[in-house]
Design brief:
eight-stranded mixed sheet; Thermonucl_AS; OB fold (Dihydrolipoamide Acetyltransferase, E2P); alpha+beta; about 280 residues; two-stranded antiparallel ribbon; nuclease; ATP binding; single chain; 3 domains
Amino acid sequence: MGSQLLLVISSISTSHLRYKKLLEAWREAKPPPKTPEEATRLVVRTLKRHQKADVEGLLTYYGLPLPHTLSEISVIPSSRPEGVKYELQTLPVDAKAVADGDTITVYVDTADTRESTNVPRGVQDAAIKRAKARAAKNYKKADELQKIIADAGYRVITGPKGEETLARKYRIRLRGIDSPESSMPYGKEAKEELVKMIQGKHLKVYVYGDDRYGRCVGDVYCNGAYIQEQMLKRGLAWHYAAYDQRPQLATWEKEARAARVGLWASSNPEKPWEWRKERRNGA
């Protein structure tokens, strides 16, 4: 589907400004759209200043889904937001990497420009020796080397075709929201919904800093959707106002409350930070 759309855009890009914009957006996309839904999101983001009828006409002509048929259409900032320290482009996320509704573990390919110059020499050597040990079927030695790699915060990930990628591990705390803990009402639902949105997908993460547990605090985007927005709108997270005063997060929580979706179906749901405090105090 993706290569089909690229071919169409390329063939007529000189005839109209919007096709030129789409071609440029396609070339800059990391990774490029791979499904009709992802292609629609790229078109919507790129042509957001164009007439709605023109955009929908273009989508219809090429057999792409219209925006209102998708579960969400959000806009990734075109430039790095103020306060962002760095940006991560992750490898596909494994379902087991989702701890709960607001914490995930991601991996970034060490071939990435930001990562390539920072890989410890010991990790590089261990990865090379591990590959040789596996080729020689010395799996005990390979497992020992894998532990060295993991202890340093890295991992060798095997792809669907057997290819191996050395990747750096990051724990991400979704900025500005607080989901119910796993043993709280709607804790399981929050985790499951987050898994549905990001499993097997590449993520873009804008990191603003670290929390006291060593996690990266950041805004997470997946296929054009702003994940914190989706968790709030679906009633599966609170706006964590004590740490983030952005008004749009408060608005999304208010909308979910009014619609009584998710945890707001309860008349007085317990706040997760109060739940944690009670357990720290031995309640």
